[in-house]
Amino acid sequence: GEDVEQSLFLSVREGDSSVINCTYTDSSSTYLYWYKQEPGAGLQLLTYIFSNMDMKQDQRLTVLLNKKDKHLSLRIADTQTGDSAIYFCAETSNFGNEKLTFGTGTRLTIIP
Amino acid sequence: DTEVTQTPKHLVMGMTNKKSLKCEQHMGHRAMYWYKQKAKKPPELMFVYSYEKLSINESVPSRFSPECPNSSLLNLHLHALQPEDSALYLCASSQEDRTGYGYTFGSGTRLTVV
After folding, report:
1. How confident is chain B (114 residues) per 10-residue block, as mean pLDDT?
2. How far apart are CA A23 and CA A30, in angstroms?
């Protein structure tokens, strides 16, 4: 079955860049997502990338995909206190009514 | 409207109660989902509805009963739950084609079973 792994914790100083990493095992993963979850809240879609891409940039967010190593990363530039949250990567091998498999989540803590 | 709306936001129920969770979206998405999220864990898929038909049931106990009355609404009927069923229940929707932006999640219903 699918397996998606992330480091559990990351601490970053305010203003620095944060890099959150994710590895997955399903070679048929076609669509990969990053979600943000603040305490007591639902999931907010941050960005996504298709498997035929290796990079996507959206304002402060940069997603890198190494399909050969099955490694996905999310870089947040100029990290702010409002970026404190749990970040989940997720993958699906199809787009539509298929199962979205989540990583274990990375709790990002911002140090003032 | 680009949101998935879930009600209620919080629910406390006894083990003999019957209650329902509701989810609504008006984005024209034809797939809708229920996920369960325990504290400090990732969401786990429970059910998928595609074009108002149940397409995936991840071996969920029968005390959870989903219903999709129409393409905009998704319910989760609860009966005879156990304390270990306490969790955040998330509803999501997605488009069936590849032009969309992924899965849109609601803010969830935090359920406590006493």
Report:
1. 90 96 94 93 93 90 96 96 97 73 87 96
2. 14
CA distances to A19, A63, B21, B59, B76 from B80, in Å: 44, 44, 14, 17, 13
Task: Please report residues of B whose CB lies closer than 8 A to that of A103.
Answer: 42
- Structure tokens that stand for A2 in this block: 């699918």
- A13: distance to nearest CA of chain B, Å? 23
Q: How far apart are CA B24 and CA A80, in angstroms?
A: 33
For the stretch A16-68, pLDDT in tens is: 999 999 999 877 777 889 999 998 888 999 998 988 889 999 999 999 999 99
How many helices (H) and strands (E) would you count in chain A?
0, 11
Q: Which amino acid is it at B80?
A: A
Going by C-beta distance under 8 Å and a sequence separation of 6 or more, which residues neighbour residue A81?
A14, A110, A112
Question: Across the interface, which of B90, B95, B96 has its CB nearest the CB of A43?
Answer: B90
Q: Is B96 left (phi over 0), alpha (psi -120 to 50) or beta?
A: alpha
